[in-house]
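Input chain follows. Return C-alpha cells only.
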Amino acid sequence: MNTGICYLVGAGPGDLGLVTLRAKEVIERCDVLVYDALANQELLCWTKPDCEKINAGKRAKDHVLSQEETNQLIVDKTQQGKVVVRLKGGDPMIFGRGGEEAAELAEAGVPYEIVPGISSTIGGAAYAGIPVTHRDHNTQLTIFTGHEDPTKGYSSVDYAHLAKTPGTKVFVMGVARLREITTSFIEGGADPKTPIALSRWATTAQQRTIVGTLEDIADIAEKTDFKSPAVAIVGDVVNEREKINWFESRPLFGKRIVVTRTRKQAGGLSKELAELGADVVELPTIRIEHPEDKRGFAETVTHAHEYDWIIFTSPNGVEHFFDAFFATYPDARSLGNPRIACIGPGTVKKLREYRFTCDLLPEEGKYVAEGLIEAFKKDHSVENETILWVKAAESRDVIAKDLMEMGAIVDECIAYRTVPETEDPTGAKARLADEGADMITFTSGSTVEHFFDLGLDWPEGCVAGSIGPVTSQTLREKGIKPAFEAHPHNIPGLVAGIVKHFS
C-alpha cells in the first residue's frame, strides 16, 4: 500500500515571487491540491496534468467547504496513499487554521509536513512601503486577528491592553469590523491621531492602500468602498510609507494587461510586465502542437544537412526542429554546413540555446518576413541554392514565394501548428469579462484570430498592443485599431511600447 503524505503549504500573500522553493516543489508533484480563495490561482498551473484540484474556497463569508469538511478531506485523500497539498494564503500557522488541520492529520496517524509561507502581516506591510519594525519608532510588534470564532461568545482581544502596548500593531480580517476595532483602541486609551494604513490584496498588482488615523480611517474606508481582504498596520511606522512606497510607484502599477501568448511563452512577457507593476492576466488563446505529418517532418529534419540554408522564423520552429534533430543525431556536427537565417532576436536567442549561431538577420525594426527577404537581397545571392524553411503550418507564403522568385530552391518544413487554447485553469476569461482590462497584447496574427474566436466582448476603454505589422493588420481586419505597434517587432519592443503608451 502506498503511503500518502499531506503538506500544509503557505502560498504567501499573493506575489508568486514570494512562494518558497519548497512550496513549488511539493505543488509540482502532488496528486491532490486543496486550495483556498486567497491563494494565487496561478499556482494551479504548477501542478502535473492529472492532479486533482479541489477548491475549499475559504473566505470570511464564503466557504465552499466547511473547516470540518476540509479536515476530513485532506485526511481521507492522504489515507488513500495520495500526495496532498493543502494550499493556504500567507502562512498556514498565522491565523490560517493550519494548526487545527495539522492536529487532525496527527490524530488520524497520517504523515504530514508544514511548509511555512510569508504572511501578509509582514510581506503585505513591506509592499505597502511600511516597515513593521523601525529603530526610530518601535522595537515591538503585535499581531492579532480582527475576525474571531463567532461561536466563542466573547472576544479574546483585549483592546484596552493593546492600546497601551508600545510598538506596531498589525491585524488581518478586520475590515468588516474596522470602526468597532478603531473605536475600541481609542476607548482603551490610544491616541486618536495614531496613523493606520490598510492594504488590500497586498503584494499583488491589485494592491490598494489607504492611510488615515484611528479616528478617521473607518470613514475613509467607507467613502472609498474599501473591501477585504486587507492587512492593517497601526503605529508611527505608517509615516515611513511617504518615503519608501516602492511597489505602488512603478510605471505600470494599476494597469490590467492581458497576455494572449501560449501558456509556455507567456511567462517571459508576463514577468516583465509584472515587474513594472502591471496586473497581468494570462489568457492564452493559442497553443502549439506537433505537425499533423510527424513522420514527414522527422524525415525532412534528418536531411537538413543537405541544404545550403536553413531559415527559422520563430522560436517554436527552432525548438521543434532541434528536438527532432537530436532525437536522430547525437552529435550537433551532423547538421553539416548550412548557413542559418532567423527572422528576429527572439529566434536567435532560442537558436543559441542549442549552441548554434545565426548568419543572417533582418535590420533592426524589420523583424518580419519582408525584412528577411530584404536581408537576403542585400547580402546574398540565393540563385540555385537550396533552402529549408522551418515554419508553422499557418505561416504566410511570403518567404517561399519571394526566395523562389530570386532563383532559390525552397522546401518547407512544417515543424508545428497553432491551435486554439481550450483550457482556462485560472478563470482568466471570466475575469476579463467581469473586470475588463486596460490593454490586451497580441504577439501574432493567430493570437488575434483565436482571441476573437472566444466570443468575448471587447472591454470598454481597453486598447490593443501589437507586436508587428502582420498582427496589426489582423487586428484592423477585426475592427480594432492598435494603440501602438512595437518597434522593434519583438517582446522588448512590445514592453517598451506598453510603458510609453501608459506614460
